[in-house]
Write a structure and sequence with these properties.
- With about 425 residues, the chain is α/β, with parallel strands linked by helices.
- The strands form 6 sheets. Strands 3-1-2-14-15-16 form a 6-stranded mixed β-sheet, with no helix packed on it.
- The longest helix has 14 residues.
- The relative contact order is 0.15.
- The N terminus and C terminus are likely disordered.
- Bound molecules: fe (ii) ion (FE2).
- The site of fe (ii) ion (FE2) has 8 residues, from loops.
- Belongs to the metallophosphoesterase superfamily. Purple acid phosphatase family.
- It catalyses: a phosphate monoester + H2O = an alcohol + phosphate.
- It comes from Triticum turgidum subsp. durum.
């Protein structure tokens, strides 16, 4: 097993897969609790790029199973435009071209810009690529670095961020991450919090895309959805789920034989990363359940010794906020996590940092009476990192403290809704 390094922050975690070295780093950074005020729309952090119809909200994600492809996505705000990416290993050359697709959507009274997704594949490992999108005076140039080949000894550093939003605290998180040396982000759901605005204002999806572009245009963010992406609003005539998220954020789900962009897997360096959807069906015989059963069998620890699972709602959580919300997924999947010796399970949703010992509760059922988790060397470490900075503030009320300490004889409750 490779060594593992953490930069455990109050807002994001850095996970370093290091060849033969076990290292731990804990940051002294502590973010402020309040105010969690959204940055105004005219903030410089949301600035639109120069030039008519210039590509904006640029973001890339892994485009295949093994890291030799990226999906490059962007929005042209004013009118349709070619979904073309020009790229090269040499700066200013751009002698290769990939062709993508374009889509858009409406949500109540909001009409999105033109959203482009372009797969760039056949890349070499460990290589810097430059790319250009847009034309003429509106063209924009970026770059990204491909990961090392899949290998038991491949070192890599992931950032883990969840529940980011677009407040001044979100800005603090992103700025801190940009200085961290992370090479790719594992995002555990709840992106823009646009659903907190009247009519789920899509303008806040656009501002969020521009806000995170300073990282997402240059390195892949491995996306997962949260409850704020569901956006089920029958009162507005919006009865499909995850509509803005699915239009805006591509995932390479077909490469891992998934039938849905909501759950999938990628392999990167020495890690096999499984993305699970907390808000899609996962009980026995559902597509997600059947896919995960197969995907776990495809894990090859000789090539990817790190097995990492991402979900939104944590399976273990000692906070009052969202207590037990991950219990149904725990009942469905914990047995497999122990059987296949998952190393780490990252979740968001609860706006706090929390890390478990290696424990499992797989013997629990209605009649066993084994209510409490026990130490289990085959079990994952569970890490919650939902304090990315969104407008709902921090979770701070411990369910263990509030339910076991008599105090005034009544149980404390969470002070504000948060997710
Ligand atoms: Fe959430």
């Amino acid at each position: 097993m490779r060594g593992l390094g953490f930069a455990a922050l109050s807002l994001h975690v850095l996970l370093c897969l290091v060849n033969g070295v076990s290292s731990r780093r804990t940051s002294s950074y502590v973010r402020s609790e309040f105010p969690s005020t959204d940055m105004p729309l005219d903030s410089e952090w949301f600035a639109t790029p120069k030039g008519y119809n210039a590509p904006q909200q640029v973001h890339i994600t892994q485009g295949d199973y093994d890291g030799k492809a990226v999906i490059i996505s962007w929005v042209t705000p004013s009118e349709p435009a070619p979904s073309q990416v020009f790229y090269s290993k040499e700066e200013n050359r751009y002698d290769q071209k990939a062709e993508g697709t374009m889509t858009n959507y409406t949500f109540y009274d909001y009409k999105s810009g033109y959203i482009h997704h372009c797969l760039v594949d056949g890349l070499q490992y460990n290589t810097k690529y430059y790319y250009k999108i847009g034309t003429g005076d509106s063209a924009r140039e970026f770059w990204f670095q491909t990961p090392p080949a899949i290998d038991i000894d491949a070192s890599y550093t992931f950032g883990i961020i969840g529940d980011l939003g677009q407040t001044f605290n979100s800005l603090s998180t992103l700025q801190h991450y940009l200085k961290s040396g992370g090479e790719s982000v594992l995002f555990v759901g709840d992106l823009s919090y646009a659903d907190r605005y009247q009519h789920n204002d899509g303008i806040r999806w656009d501002s969020w895309g521009r806000f995170v572009e300073r990282s997402t245009a240059y390195q892949p963010w491995i996306w997962n959805s949260g409850n704020h992406e569901i956006e089920y609003r029958p009162d507005l005539g919006e009865t499909s789920t995850f509509k803005p998220y699915l239009h805006r954020y591509s995932t390479p789900y077909l490469a891992s034989k998934s039938s849905s962009p909501m759950w999938y897997a990628v392999r990167r360096a020495s890690a096999h990363i499984i993305v699970l959807s907390s808000y899609s069906p996962f009980v026995k015989y559902t597509p997600q359940w059947m896919w995960l059963k197969g995907e776990l069998k495809r894990v090859d620890r000789e090539k990817t010794p790190w097995l990492i699972v991402l979900m939104h709602a944590p399976m273990y959580n000692s906070n009052d906020a969202h207590f037990m919300e991950g219990e149904s997924m725990r009942a469905a999947f914990e047995k497999w996590f122990v059987k296949y010796k998952v190393d780490l399970v990252f979740a968001g949703h609860v706006h706090a940092y929390e890390r478990s010992y290696r424990i499992s509760n797989i013997n629990y059922n209605v009649t066993s009476g084994n209510r409490y988790p026990v130490p289990d060397k085959s079990a994952p470490v569970y890490i919650t990192v939902g304090d990315g900075g969104n407008q709902e503030g921090l979770a701070w009320s411990s369910v263990i403290r509030s339910r076991t300490t008599p105090r005034s004889g009544r149980r404390a409750t969470a002070t504000r809704p948060c997710s």
